[in-house]
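Before any further analysis, backbone shapes were mapped to integers, which produced the following:

***
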Amino acid sequence: MIDIGAHILAALGGNGWGSVRDIPRRLAHHGVIAQEEVGNLEAMIGMRKVLVRGYIEVDPRKIHEIIQTRLGDFERFAQAVARFLQQVED
């Protein structure tokens, strides 16, 4: 999601973000994703940082809950990107 968002923003004319957590907000600004998705995607980016960098102890139950309830966020992101790319091609 981070890489795809960064590539789209670069293609739209520069990076325009200070950190990777800014990517969802910038994507919404350009109409790639819905504004309502920004918070969810920012939270996912934050969780990725926690998991990859090991900043804090992660509760496995919390990860299980996210896997069980939040994977639809990825699907909505993929659908939004597909719609955006289709519009660009047309």
The CA atoms of residues 66 and 87 lie 31 Å apart.
